[in-house]
Specification:
The structure holds two protein chains of two kinds.
Chain A: E1 9-20, E2 26-31, H1 33-38, E3 44-47, E4 59-62, E5 65-67, E6 75-80, H2 85-90, E7 98-105, E8 117-123, H3 128-139, E9 143-150, H4 159-164, E10 168-173, E11 180-181, H5 184-195, E12 199-203, H6 206-218, E13 223-226, E14 242-246, E15 257-261, E16 268-270
Parallel strand pairs in A: 8-9, 8-12, 9-10, 10-11, 12-13
Antiparallel strand pairs in A: 1-2, 1-7, 2-6, 3-4, 3-7, 5-6, 13-16, 14-15
Chain B: E1 8-10, E2 13-15, E3 19-21, E4 43-45, E5 62-65, E6 68-71, H1 80-93, E7 98-102, H2 107-117, E8 123-129, E9 133-134, E10 140-141, H3 146-159, E11 164-168, H4 175-184, E12 189-192, E13 196-199, E14 201-202, E15 207-208, E16 214-218, H5 223-236, E17 242-245, H6 251-260, E18 264-267, H7 270-273, H8 277-291
Parallel strand pairs in B: 3-4, 3-18, 4-7, 7-8, 8-11, 11-12, 12-17, 17-18
Antiparallel strand pairs in B: 1-2, 5-6, 6-16, 9-10, 13-16, 14-15
Helix pairs in contact in B: 2-3, 3-4, 5-6, 6-8
The chains are: A alpha/beta, B alpha/beta.
């Protein structure tokens, strides 16, 4: 039996280009026309580590960008920093390296139905899915503005591409080496007013997501977050990537919350659905 | 040569082939249906079921280790009734034989789950997951104590309409002693083995990698331990059918478990890497049997050369 239409594409792809971005970040462009054709912003691909078969599990990577230019085989970009043995090996992939990938996986960002001003808020490498989102939102006629945050100017993910995909970009850095010294939420309200944003999309470290969600709730703005959690399978079977979400009480649920699977019920969640009191800011050690 | 005979009989239940999927590694089947025809499987051992829904542990619930992974899912499941109402009919409709894995915090809870599954259509056997803290006995695992193991199995047998398999843990002084308690309690068969308890620490953050600190180690890293356990148990109880599990990722691994004494196998962690893993392993195993000119899969467990 051949895979059905519900199945993600699975197979070997070729690396078209490796690029070292700013100091901490690496980028891979893979030739994957089937994934490229079906991918939507917020979705991810799950990549096996080449060479080292003692690393069993796939690593999930947000789709950073796709290239659907006619006449080319479609490509998909991922960006990452080195967090462990898997990403270390992956950072050695070069043109023609073969990679085993599964995707696209997960639920994408939801788009506004009417023409809407959208503010994208990304922190560090977490900003990865926002470039794809910005390009698609603009393609649908929405205004896009950006806030990019990072520890230093080097940690701002692809600031020039962010600028090209949006009307305005504002930066915050912990050390003040670029933009405003501070964190993204220091300038969020001001940017919302200046851009007349009616919806916020965000991805980044948990403390940042929590702060952005709180600020959006205060400003009564809908906010979608792209969640990151350790995964084993990426397609809903293992229950490793648990995210605490609010649930209706009743029907066997007296607590009013439960675990959702980041991979299939996310990775994009409405910020108001996350049960923030149960989210840990600094969970146990995670290496990928 | 004609195709090898793959059908196996486990405690009176016939399976069309000996390749099952392991509990907790195939959820309730739905996630794999887009990728493979589930009828290719001998059967599915579903994620463990408790009387009431269990929420499971906070993240991080998983950590990769060399040739393996640690998990601390915490037996999250929707409860046996939700399974019967929602997941079981879906599996039955697709003609997938179901082995229901059951868990509890007390003998009473195990009995209540088994009782709910009594005569449930499509449930061909019960696998009792005894790697669970016994709250009646100050958190000692049922699996580490022969008396507690015997008590659970006797209780489950009293209410079950299906054959009962006991899933043994490797974290014991003598696995044969626990196997004996299960068999004396009336277990028709044995599942060998569950994950091995392990731990990993991130040296940069100096924190344990799992929220619960310790968790179950699975994958090829534990396969030699599982082969040893199957071998020891099958030599002690040659008449008792064994479902071998622990790190299976190829057709050769299936053969290895059967040579050690297993009548069937269950594929676990390898399903997470690739949703079509079980189908690939099936194809590789058939190729192995054909190449070795083995006409009936049941012959394998008598073919280990020990001389």
């Amino acid at each position: 039996m051949s895979p059905t239409k519900d199945a993600a594409w699975s197979g070997q792809v070729e690396v078209f280009a490796y690029r070292r971005l700013a100091e901490p970040y690496h980028s891979l462009t893979i030739v994957a026309p089937d994934i490229c054709a079906r991918a939507a912003p917020g979705q991810f691909i799950a990549v096996r580590t080449p060479d080292d078969r003692s690393l069993l599990l796939r690593r999930p990577f947000s789709i950073h960008r796709v290239d659907r230019r006619p006449g080319w085989a479609g490509t998909v970009d991922i960006v990452f920093d080195i967090r462990g043995r898997g990403t270390e090996v992956l950072a050695r992939a070069r043109q023609h390296t073969s990679l085993d990938v599964l995707g696209p996986l997960g639920r994408p960002f939801r788009f506004p139905k009417e023409q809407t001003n959208c503010l994208l808020v990304g922190g560090g490498i977490g900003a990865a899915p926002l470039l794809f989102l910005a390009e698609e939102l603009r393609g649908h006629g929405h205004r896009v503005d950006y806030i990019l945050g990072g520890r230093t100017s080097e940690h701002l993910l692809r600031p020039i591409e962010a600028k090209r995909a949006s009307l305005t970009v504002s930066f915050t850095t912990d050390d003040g080496s670029s933009g405003t010294q501070g964190v993204v939420t220091d300038i969020l309200e001001e940017r919302v007013r200046a851009t007349k944003a009616r919806v916020v999309y965000t991805c980044g470290p948990v403390p940042m997501l929590r702060a952005v969600a709180r600020e959006c709730a205060r400003l009564k703005l809908p906010c979608q977050v792209a969640w990151e959690e350790v995964m084993a399978c990426g397609f809903g079977a293992c229950l490793v990537c648990a995210v605490p979400v609010r649930l209706e009480r009743g029907a066997g649920n007296d607590e009013g919350w439960g675990w959702a699977r980041c991979c299939t019920e996310g990775p994009v969640f409405s910020a108001s659905r996350i049960h923030w009191e149960r989210v840990e800011d600094a969970p146990a050690g995670v290496t990928t | 040569m004609s195709d090898p005979r793959l059908e196996v009989d486990l405690a009176g239940v016939k399976f069309r082939n000996p390749i099952l999927t392991a509990s907790g590694c195939f959820h309730y089947g739905k996630e794999f249906a887009p990728y493979m025809d589930l009828r290719r499987l001998g059967g599915v051992i579903v994620k463990s079921l408790s009387v009431k829904p269990w929420p499971g542990h906070p993240p991080p619930r998983g950590a990769e280790t060399p040739s393996g992974m640690l998990n601390a899912i915490g037996l999250q499941n929707p409860g046996v009734q939700a399974f019967i109402d929602r997941d079981l009919p879906w599996l039955v409709q697709r003609k997938v034989p179901v082995i229901a894995s059951i868990v509890g915090h007390s003998v009473e809870e195990y009995i209540r789950v088994a009782d709910r599954l009594r005569n449930a259509p499509g449930v061909v056997a019960i696998e009792v997951n005894i790697s669970c803290p016994n709250l009646d006995d100050r958190s000692l695992m049922f699996s580490s104590n022969p008396d507690a193991t015997g008590a659970v199995i006797r209780g489950v047998r009293r209410v079950s309409s299906q054959p009962v398999f006991t899933k043994l843990s490797p974290d014991v002084t003598d696995i044969v002693e626990i196997a004996r308690a299960a068999v004396r309690g009336g277990s028709h068969g044995l599942s060998v083995m569950n994950t091995a308890l392990g731990m990993a620490i991130d040296t940069e953050s100096m924190r344990p990698k799992l929220s619960t600190f310790t968790g179950g180690l699975s994958g090829p890293a534990i396969k030699p331990i599982a082969i040893r356990c199957v071998y020891q148990v099958s030599r002690a109880f040659p008449e008792i059918p064994i479902i071998g599990q622990g790190g299976i990722n190829s057709g050769a691994d299936v053969a290895e478990f059967m040579l050690a004494g297993a009548s069937a196998v269950a594929v676990g962690t390898a399903n997470f890497t690739e949703p079509t893993t079980a189908k690939r392993i099936y194809d590789e195993f058939v190729e192995y049997l054909t190449r070795k000119r083995i006409k009936d899969v049941s012959q394998l467990k008598k073919m280990l050369k020990e001389g």
